[in-house]
Amino acid sequence: MLKKANRDFATDPEHTVFLFLFSQSHLSTFRQHLIHREVLHVYPAGTEGIFSYRREHTYAGRPLQSAGSEGGGDRVFIAGTPFPVAIIYRDRYTSMRFTPERWCHTAYAHAHGLRLAQLMDLGAEIARPGTTVTREQLLAHRTCAEACAVCARMRAVQPSPKHPPADRYKAQKPGSMWAADATGPITPIGYDGSRYRWTFVDFTVRFTFCYFSAEKSAYSFILAQFLADVVHHGFACTGLVLRTDCAPELCDPTAQALYKHHGIKHQQSSPTLHWQNFTG
Known about the structure:
- The chain is α+β, with helices and mostly antiparallel strands.
- It has three domains: 2-90, no CATH class; 100-142, no CATH class; 177-268, Ribonuclease H-like superfamily/Ribonuclease H (Nucleotidyltransferase, domain 5, 2-Layer Sandwich).
- It contains nine helices and ten strands.
- The protein has helices at residues 2-11, 68-71, 100-107, 113-121, 135-141, 149-155, 219-232, 248-251, 253-261, and strands at residues 18-23, 38-43, 52-54, 75-77, 85-90, 177-183, 196-202, 208-213, 241-244, 265-268.
- The longest helix has 14 residues, at 219-232.
- The two termini are 28 Å apart.
- It comes from Cymbomonas tetramitiformis.
């Protein structure tokens, strides 16, 4: 839902407003999606009068207060939550809130989180004065670069591709080394809701598999289907080399588990850069 709200802002910031009720303890968990937000108010744990529900579906040992004209005559306020609740708001005037790791990313020329972590390992004080940042936060930020508009534009840059010499991979056994990438969102959307096309190309003979999905998060299912097709066409999975960029869905724990289970050697084209066309 937060990702959709941010996409709506990217599409029409002049006419988009959102208001969320959020557990205060989860603000840090989703902070990469909440950099443009304002906390209007925080209700202490147990505060009543926040949430309402249909009267006929509630029960209580004491009378419940009517939700009034805002909630509707058939609704009543229910007991407060056992945790603090924050009201999150955003409109076109809401300023950006920098987390420590995002400040480092911006202050150091949009450097990759791995590069920043390496600087920290060398003893460099990279945090903003008066704040602290951990190595874990920097490494987590490498998978959240979609929140950075500059990095998003860089990923869309398409320089002239530099193809390797044609005979570079002739010594490779067919089916032993593949390249994979996704294209999309596709317009118009497919009749089945497909928005992304996944392409797997063999380096030696250019044998190609194509698949479609509605979301990029379906990569693990696409990968499993690709491996089944590889075996069906007489190729081997064990020892297979798969080259991709550094997109999060290609490197997440589910994908890594599939690589390990099938004995796949996963190679990243530029492991220390944000993913972008022909580079990362």
